[in-house]
Amino acid sequence: MSAKEIMTGNEAIARGAYEAGVTVGTAYPGTPSTEILETLARYKGIHCNWSVNEKVALEVGIGASLAGARVITCMKHVGVNVAADPLVTFSYTGVGGGLVLVAADDPGMHSSQNEQDSRHLARLAKIPVLEPADSQEAKDFVLYALELSERFDTPVLLRSSTRISHSRGLVALGEPLPREPKEYVKNAPKYVMLPAYARRRHPLVEARLQALQEEAEKSPLNRIEAGSPELGVVCSGVAYQYVKEALPDASVLKLGFSYPLPAGLVRRFAAAVKRLLVVEELDPFMEEQIRALGLEVTGKELFPAVGEYSTELIREKVRGESRGTIPPREIPSRPPLLCPGCSHRGVFYVLKQLKVHVMGDIGCYTLAATPPLEAMDSCICMGASIGTALGMVLAKPELAGRTVAVIGDSTFLHSGITPLIDVVYNAAPVTVLILDNGTTAMTGHQAHPGTGFTLQGKKVPAVDLEALCRAVGVRRVAVVDPFQLDRLRQTLKEELAAGEPSVIIARHPCPLLTRESSPPLAVKEDKCNGCRLCLRLGCPAISFDGKKAAVNPSLCNGCGLCAQVCRQQAIIPVSEEGR
Amino acid sequence: MNNCKYDLLIAGAGGQGTILASKIISRVALAQDLEVKTAETHGMAQRGGSVVTHVRIGSRVYSPLIPLGDADFLLSFEQLEALRWLPYLSSRGTVITADLVMEPLPVLTGREEYPADALEQIKKAAHRTIVLDTGQAEPLRRNPRVLNMILLGILCPLLPFPRECWEEVIRETVPPRLLEINQAAFRYGLEYKAD
Ligand SMILES: Cc1ncc(C[n+]2csc(CCOP(=O)(O)OP(=O)(O)O)c2C)c(N)n1
Fold it and tell me: How confident is the model at residue A548, as a pLDDT?
């Protein structure tokens, strides 16, 4: 018997890449996909690197594939939007070595700004979609994907989801294939997509889609599990597990290779059951295609296109069973928060004080949009802060001097540089605050080009943010420590009044990364007048009993912001207490 | 152990060690040749937010998520979190919870109230409740992070897996320099008698 190990879906995907002889792995971090590349980097002989964003990650992957290597490129669902441009044309050129693109969807939006269904993007690019239903399949499907990629000369999309990527299950390990990249052969008509060549490639893409459908018809990834003829359920991904548990008697068509849809197989399955149901999370992707075959099918009129599915949801919708016996109660929520000692907290405290419009971005700092800081007007996608701030002041010139863009360092490098150039190009009075905490904190502290370290911790030249901003034409660039609230406030006032593009870099390393801390603070009860100013910081270490504030010493990181905010000098380091 | 099924929900606030606890239970179950699946909370929600890990053990496990009303055990690191996840418990389920109170931000800022009768509510709803008196738990005074091991120690005799197996898995999973205190915490849980 082969060795078995319990693995998350992400670990299993990395194992699959290792066993398949992948030699290049690229990604930009994003929950729930991040740990794939982090795990893959621990295997010997595989070049793994964080790219600056998903478009670049795929482009590096494409280059490696053309050069003959087997490649895995990983991202969260919204990352595929960023990578869509190269993806759609890469479908025309096809691959050298096989390339599997892992897209991790997030139904339920555990850690995302939308819950798009990334299968649409594969359909747009006319490439096949594989949907594993557990860790074992996550590994096996990577090997299958790379075979398929090479055999059909196409990139392949492996669609994971939070419940696949972050669930653990048993995985049987296999022997790794030899790591032997193919020869690189220059082939301009295949790889140079100017119109004359692309016109020749497009018919091949259409023919390939046909051939892929025939492959899906007989693929071992698609199977009928015959049960009662009363009800037949078509399902994919983790929804298969919910169906098997909730409807143990139903006939099931499990589609692991779900696009192009194996229409013949679906027809055969439909003919053998009285009632046909599709259970798929998010959009009616398979459902609409099945209906287009002229088959009668139930899907989204029963199941939501919103949120995660579950066993109990299917029990309820199909069998009319109620959910559990103990009713939920109205109790206080426990929302995620900026950590004690977070370098972002003071920035938003000051921004709220100044009553400016804050065009926000994505990262830990987005948590400042929630009470009590509530210091953010918008957050759309990575990099959007700067362009939206520019749009605000173009539309309403009176907002100039009252509007800032706030963006993290990793996000700035990901997609903030080009809109900053646009601010300069428009000579717009926009102030950009770069929150440089020296890491990609939100997704678990990954290095990025501004940190000067690679994924493996190797030292490399770091991007100089000040020089970069100056080089694109920003004349006013200031650097402040976000724990010096007075200085920060002063600098913000100056830059907002400057009437030209400006950048403030608020620089302090993330305390979770450096483990920086000072002795905890304490409230001198006799001095506290109960004004609640310190509570506006939203620090989990500070509480209020109705009369006075208190600091929880086991949570306090000693950053001292509350002491700066307090007008009564009532919050002091514990060591000075009693003096 | 044919046709057995154990569904365990482990609840806490971000950073309390729910994932390590689930790993240990999983490995113990694997050693009995049972199937195991778990589902974890990562990412955004971890920043001090409410987190939960599902552990499902059985001869055949499909969904990694425990259906509402199916959990045999709810292990909780904190009172409010036990209350929050209670609907997952089956009518015959057991709650093992620490008596810790960690006030979430809406409570800290005085906008909402922490339910003073959380433990009573839990005891009323659950078939069986074991409350760990953390103030008395000597291992926590040495290292508050071993709460997960105490809860596992309390759980151990309630599952039909040999104690030696738990001890072996703990030896293999915990870093050597923390092994002694973790073992002590597990033993404290094993011998724990709630009154
Ligand atoms: C296109 C896209 N890729 C990845 C993500 C996941 N993600 C959210 S925020 C973030 C970066 C956060 O880093 P930074 O801007 O430095 O802020 P920090 O969290 O360190 O405060 C990432 C990678 C995303 N939301 N969208």
Answer: 94
Ligand 1 centroid to residue A363 C-alpha, Å: 5
What CATH number does the domain located at A344-514 have?
3.40.50.970
Residue A258, ligand 1, Cβ within 6 A: no
Domain A521-576 has CATH 3.30.70.20: yes
In the numeric block, the tokens 């994971």 are attached to A160
User: Residue B129 sits in which domain range?
Assistant: 5-107+115-191
Is residue A65 lining ligand 1, measured as CB closer than 6 Å?
no
> Mean per-residue pLDDT for B33-58?
86
Q: How many residues does chain A have?
A: 579
* Residue B15 in contact with partner chain A when CB distance is under 8 A: no
**Fold matches, A222-319 and A344-514:** yes
Count A/B contacts: CB-CB distance under 8 Å.
Answer: 175
**Complex-level ipTM beyond the 0.90 threshold:** yes
Percent of chain B topping pLDDT 70? 96
Most B CBs within 10 A among A326, A333, A543, hence the mutation to make, goes to A326
CB B155 within 8 A of CB B73: yes
Query: Does the CB of B14 have a partner CB in chain A at under 8 Å?
Result: yes
Structural domain tally of chain B? 1
- Closest alpha carbon to B132 in B106, B178, B99: B99
Q: Measured between alpha carbons, how far is A469 from A501 in angstroms, rounded to an integer? A: 10
> What backbone phi and psi angles, to 5 degrees, belong to A287?
-55, -50
In chain A, where the domains are located = 4-215, 222-319, 344-514, 521-576
**Residue B45 pLDDT exceeds 80:** no
Q: Which two tokens stand for residue A546?
A: 């109705």
Distance of CA B147 from the midpoint of ligand 1 (Å): 32
Architecture (CATH level 2) of domain A222-319: 3-Layer(aba) Sandwich (3.40)
Residue A126 is encoded by which pair of tokens? 């006319």
> Which CATH class for the A4-215 domain?
alpha beta
